[in-house]
Structures are given as C-alpha cells and as structure tokens.
Specification:
2 domains; four-stranded mixed sheet; isomerase; 10 strands; Lyase 2-enoyl-coa Hydratase, Chain  A, domain 2
Length: about 270
C-alpha cells in the first residue's frame, strides 16, 4: 500500500513497516505528511493483527524536520493558524508515542528537528553508524516545543538543555550514550541486523509484548508501595493463567517453538 509520501508494508507475522517516502526533500514534514502519518498510525493501532510497527525512511535521510515550502507558508500564518498547525504535529507525536504495540524507529541517516521527535516517540530506536541527529530549531529562532515532552523523556533534562540550546549535531554513538537510540549498527550490515532484530522480537508472545509495554507505563515513576506490589502480582498472575502464558511455558519446557495466538484472540 502507498499513500504517496508513505509506503506501508505488512508481513504475515504481524510486522508492519511504515516508510517515509519523500527522499527528494530528505523526508521532511509538511501538513499533508503529518495528516497522512497520523491517520495511518491511528488506523494501525486499532488493527489486532499488528504486533510491531517499524518506522523507516527512504533515501539518505531519516527526516530533515520541517519542509521548506511548508515553512514559507507558516511565515505568513497568524498566531491562531500557527497554533492549530502545531497541534496537528503534536497529534502525530502523541499517536506514535501512545501506539499500543511495540514501535521501532529504524534510523538510516540524518534526523533533524521533528525527525528526532519521531525517534524519541518510538519504544526502540536502531541507528546506522552514519546517522546524525540535530535539534536545530533555535538556528531559526524557534524551539522544539511539541516534540519536547518525548525528547526530554528520552534523553533527560540536562542533555535536552544542551542540545535544545546549542543546535549542535551529534552522531549515533552520542545518541546512544544519551538514550535517544538503543543500538548502533554498522552500515554494511544495517539491513540484515535490523531484520534479524525485528524477527527475534516477533518470536515473543504477542499479548505478553502488549502487556509488557502497558506494565512499563504503569510502574514508571510510581512509589514502590503495597498498591504497586499487589497490582504487579496481579498482572503476572493474569499472564500465567492466560492461554498464551500456558503455551509459552509449555513450549519452553518441551523445547519446541511456541504456537502463539494473536493478541486480539487472547483478549477474547
């Protein structure tokens, strides 16, 4: 499936690849791309067959941030128009961040501005060693406002203060050091290692992966008290008693591949 600026590919095992397809402008955002991406992500979130969403990009760059022609139009916007326009981008970031299944950013090249926001919104980020990152907004007299909740959450307050204010670029190694990406991969083996990583994820229980993401969101920054202890005990009891949990343990003990149901079937 193609939506002009987006290419959507599905595999039988639940992997969906969503590829930014504007290589001629380094996959920069405009209002149409933002609307298309938001709509597709929201639709995929409701699809029980989706297990992992991989966000990719065609060409040399992952995303250069805002499209120049879009920026020219914005220069003549009123405050209200700018506000409504920014809410659309904020909606895209929220839709990606709140996606119910595991999301993986596959960063093969440069990610600037809003492109960094997309990376920060994903659960996992894999980067080529040639990837470059930059929060470049202050060079234009702007700020990375709507992406800031996700970027600060990923890289921390002090790193955000540095890179928001300096607009200096940093490489994949530094991105890993500050928490923006999880794994840096050599250029010559990038595609093969990314595919291997995704396939290994898909060998896990689909409902367990879904529940694991919910678990992190539930326990993060909460005090370790009686309520939290009882809630986490209840969650592991639920998964142990589930069809998927029983199948996973049985397969492990019997030294055979597990026969997973999809997450929706488990819920039913």
């Amino acid at each position: 499936m193609s939506e002009n600026s987006i290419v959507l590919e599905r595999s039988a095992n639940g992997l969906v690849s969503l590829t930014l397809n504007r290589p001629d402008v380094h996959n920069a955002f405009d209002d149409k791309l933002i609307a298309d991406l938001t709509r597709v992500i929201q639709r995929l979130d409701e699809d029980p067959k989706v297990r992992v969403l991989a966000l990719k990009a065609e060409g040399k760059s992952f995303s250069a941030g805002a499209d120049l022609n879009w920026m020219k139009r914005m220069a003549n916007y009123s405050w209200e128009q700018n506000y409504q326009d920014s809410l659309q981008l904020a909606g895209l970031m929220q839709a990606l961040h709140d996606f119910s299944k595991t999301t993986v950013a596959i960063v093969q090249g440069a990610a600037y501005g809003g492109g960094v926001g997309l990376v920060a919104c994903c659960d996992i980020a894999l980067a080529s060693e040639r990837a470059i990152f930059c929060l470049s907004e202050v060079k234009l007299g702007l700020i990375p406002a709507v992406i800031s909740p996700y970027v600060v959450k990923a890289i921390g307050e002090r790193n955000a203060k540095r890179y928001f204010a300096t607009a200096e670029s940093f490489n994949a190694s530094e991105a890993k050091h500050i928490g923006l990406v999880h794994k840096v991969i050599r250029v010559e083996s990038f595609d093969a290692e990314v595919n291997d990583y995704l396939q290994k994820m898909l060998s896990n229980g689909p409902n367990a992966m879904y529940q694991a993401k919910r678990l992190v969101e539930f326990v993060y920054n909460k005090p370790i008290n009686e309520e939290l202890i009882r809630e986490t005990a209840q969650r592991i009891a639920d998964t142990r008693a589930s069809k998927e949990g029983k199948e996973g343990v049985s397969a492990f003990l019997e030294k055979r591949p597990a026969q997973w149901l999809d997450a929706q079937s488990e819920k039913e």
